[in-house]
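hey so i finally got around to running the thing on that chain from the lab meeting. sorry it took forever, my laptop kept dying and i had to restart like 3 times. anyway pasting the input first so we r on the same page abt which one it is
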Amino acid sequence: MTAAYAFTDYRSQDQTISYVLVDIARPPSGTLNPFNLYVALSRSSGRDTIHLLRDFDERLFLSAHSADLLAEDDRLHLLDEETRKWRVQMATDN
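ok and heres what got predicted. didnt touch it at all, straight out
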């Protein structure tokens, strides 16, 4: 028996895990998208420490991002640029 724990891809963001066992099967409700796959597979410290729990549908890696996700990414990029400009302006004003 091996002690382990599980958590969602959302919860795993910004974490590096020394050994990762990933289940990328389609969930019983909902869908997977390329973002979910990226987060799940990029949590390990290297590809030698990633192990897949089961076979998966390779077409998951070929699917496109949702329009809503792309729009949100664009919105966040614009906010980032505005914030950078504001910080530069604040630094030059002081």
